Amino acid sequence: MIKSFISLIFILIVFKNTLFSQPDKFVNNQDPYQWLIGASWVSSGAVLNGGGLFENKFELYPTRLFVDYHIYGPWSIESAFALENLDFDSSSRFSFDIHSKYSLYNLVSKSWITPYLSLGGGITNLNTAFLTGNSFIGVNLILSSNLGLQMQTGIKLSPMSFKQNSYMQHSVGLIYKFYKFEKNQNDFDKKKHKIRRKKIRIKTNDKENET
Questions:
Q1: CA triplet 70, 77, 29: central angle to 5 degrees?
Q2: Mind listing the pLDDT tens digit for each residue in 45-85?
């Protein structure tokens, strides 16, 4: 399964360099979006409890949904929901997280790659609910002005049963960006092009009328 995802990433990068290299509007990594949504495949591992790095395999369908809102400059905030079917005991793990993300676009010269850091917390349910503190590092690969590929990895640490509940989470998925609508600049100045009525004076024998 991991080899399949590596192959998928390679195909998407090649696809980006061929199809999307056509002369079209291309948004670089410094252009701020307004909203970003995504769906990703998830794998995880309880490495602190003796588990493997990819202990739980990727599903055939995306199991993590997330929404990202751009705040200002490199800062954005993300909320995410994930469902994982654990292989070691056939149970399911649900999680809901809120993260603050910081873009590192100024560290790379390529316009189609955007690394980022993500810090936050959330709540996870695995037989019982517990809180986690989360730390992730990831990268967005921009395929077109709106479509992209996201890869990230990180760790979720729980203060409750630290070794048992803490785990690493990895995800690969697709993202779609929405940009703020901007009205086209209109140089039509109402004052400049305003029709003005001129006063016409008509002289008569008795008096001077003004209209």
A1: 45
A2: 988 888 888 888 898 999 999 999 999 999 999 999 999 98
Q: What is the rounded distance in angstroms from the CA atom of residue 186 to the CA atom of residue 188?
A: 5
One-letter identity of residue 163? K
In the chain, domain spans = 2-210
Q: Which helix (H) or strand (E) holds 165?
A: helix 162-165
Beta carbons within 8 Å of 162's beta carbon, 6+ residues apart: 48
CATH code given to domain 2-210 = 2.40.160.20
Which residue's entry shows tokens 């056509």?
22
CB 175 within 8 A of CB 150: yes
Amino acid at 45: G
Strand pairing category for 147-157 and 208-210: unpaired
